[in-house]
């Protein structure tokens, strides 16, 4: 069970954004992996960063306050924001890296520089049909991306010939002190010589020309769980572009698109199907075999079924992505009227018209119809 984000940061549920930032800064300073090498410090650092990223965003915070962790599962994929160490360090440096040089306190900020040197993410989309959504599927794709140069091991230097930057002394940044009416201000900027990497290359690798990367092809297997929806996404850690000169790789982000099926409508985990029946079938009752995306189900339309009635078959919808429990199939009954009548059919309908009696009032009929619709769809 995920921890409550407010408890993680140690703030109340009505805490202001400033309170949230202060609480995160305090804990991030305490558990930063360049400052705290105790067991569990890295996990704690990632946990407080996750809580901070959700609660600092007003829209995500509102969703979380209303629905808890389940409210973060929609467009954000199959969960909220679950950072790896590079992402957590990036968040910390983004909001606090330039305020007094925190990374300098942590021994030069090697991890933070690696996070800044991280390779780009690769984004791709995968289209599924309804049967694949119900049972889950596996896709194998070939990616052309920047991979670590084998000739130099990703360093960008021929024979590993690199040295500590003489301008920044390996810190990757330069600091300038400026006196003002408010006192001495310290500005921190990336080193112009090594571009924040802390090392310079005297003799670039001939294969990658000093970048530490070459373009290559990789086969990636994507496991897609049952129950996904359009605009959900999967994140495959470390399958993106490799960062320059030893930087960590980005991620492969797989966006899910679900193809339409004209026979069905999706409502959450439920399937809705329109079934056309004749006058006699609706009046006398009938059995129908309905082909589902992954199976066939028998549906019984009871005698006296009215137009717009809904027959529900439990457990034949989509599986819930978290629990695996399947939703329901709702069959909406449509009365089919023959466009042309044979002489025999006309004679029979005329006889029926003489004995069938008057239909119910529009008011009573409409109320019963909408009551059945609300009951079927839980509204």
The CATH superfamily of the domain at 1-116 appears as DnaJ domain
Q: If strands are numbered along the chain, what order do they take across the biggest sheet?
A: 10-11-15-14
Rounded to the nearest angstrom, the distance between the terminal CA atoms is 29 Å
Structural class determined from secondary elements:
alpha+beta
Query: Helical segment tally?
Result: 11
**Which regions are unreliable across 5 or more consecutive residues at pLDDT < 50?**
74-79, 98-109
Task: Give the percentage of residues in beta strands.
Answer: 25-35%
CATH architecture of the domain at 1-116: Orthogonal Bundle
Q: Output mean pLDDT.
A: 81
Globular, elongated, flat, extended or rod-shaped: what is the shape? elongated
Largest sheet: 4 strands, mixed
Number of strand segments: 15
Helix content: 25-40%
CATH topology-level fold name of the domain at 1-116: Helix Hairpins
Task: Provide structural commentary.
The chain has eleven helices and 15 strands. It is α+β, with helices and mostly antiparallel strands. Among the domains are: 1-116, DnaJ domain (Helix Hairpins, Orthogonal Bundle), CATH 1.10.287.110; 265-377, Urease metallochaperone UreE, N-terminal domain (HSP40/DNAj peptide-binding domain), CATH 2.60.260. A four-stranded mixed sheet has the order 10-11-15-14. Helix 2 (17-31) runs antiparallel to helix 3. The two termini are 29 Å apart.
Record the SSE blueprint:
Blueprint lengths: L4 H5 L7 H15 L9 H15 L2 H10 L17 H12 L5 H4 L4 H7 L5 E7 L1 H6 L1 E12 L13 E3 L8 E8 L2 E8 L8 E3 L11 E12 L8 E4 L15 E7 L6 E3 L2 E8 L1 H6 L1 E6 L4 E6 L8 E4 L15 E7 L7 H13 L6 H16 L2
Parallel strand pairs: 1-9, 11-15
Antiparallel strand pairs: 2-7, 3-6, 4-5, 8-9, 10-11, 12-13, 14-15
């Amino acid at each position: 069970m995920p921890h409550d984000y407010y408890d993680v940061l140690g703030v109340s549920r009505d805490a202001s954004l400033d309170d949230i930032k202060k609480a995160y800064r305090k804990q991030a300073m305490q558990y930063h992996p360049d400052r705290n090498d105790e067991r569990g410090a890295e996990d704690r650092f990632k946990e407080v960063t996750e809580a901070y990223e959700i609660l600092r965003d007003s829209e995500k915070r509102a969703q979380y306050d209303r629905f808890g962790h389940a409210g973060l599962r929609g467009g954000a994929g199959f969960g909220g924001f679950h950072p790896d160490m590079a992402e957590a360090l990036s968040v910390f440096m983004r909001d606090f890296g330039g305020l007094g040089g925190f990374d300098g306190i942590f021994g030069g900020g090697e991890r933070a520089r690696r996070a800044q040197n991280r390779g780009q993410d690769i984004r791709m989309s995968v289209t599924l049909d309804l049967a694949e959504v119900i049972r889950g599927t596996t896709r194998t794709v070939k990616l052309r991306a920047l991979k670590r140069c084998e000739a130099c091991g990703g360093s960008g230097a021929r024979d590993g010939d690199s040295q500590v930057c003489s301008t920044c002394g390996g810190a990757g940044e330069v600091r300038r002190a400026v006196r003002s009416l408010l006192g001495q201000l310290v500005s921190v900027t990336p080193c112009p010589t090594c571009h924040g990497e802390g090392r310079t290359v005297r003799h670039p690798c001939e294969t990658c020309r000093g970048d530490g990367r070459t373009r290559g092809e990789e086969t990636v297997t994507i496991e897609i769980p049952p129950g996904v929806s359009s605009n959900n996404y999967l994140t495959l850690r470390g399958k993106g572009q490799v960062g320059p000169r030893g930087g960590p790789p980005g991620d492969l982000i797989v966006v899910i698109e679900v193809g339409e099926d004209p026979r069905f409508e999706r409502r959450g985990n439920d399937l809705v199907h329109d079934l056309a029946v004749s006058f006699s079938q609706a009046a006398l009752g009938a059995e129908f075999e309905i082909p589902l995306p992954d199976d066939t189900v028998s549906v019984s339309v009871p005698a006296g079924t009215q137009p717009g009635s809904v027959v529900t078959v439990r457990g034949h919808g989509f599986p819930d992505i978290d629990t695996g429990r399947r939703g329901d199939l709702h069959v909406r009954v449509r009365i089919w009227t023959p466009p042309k009548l044979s002489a025999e059919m006309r004679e029979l309908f005329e006889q029926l018209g003489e004995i069938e009696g008057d239909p119910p009032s529009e008011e009573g009929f409409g109320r019963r119809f909408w009551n059945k619709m609300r009951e079927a769809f839980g509204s």
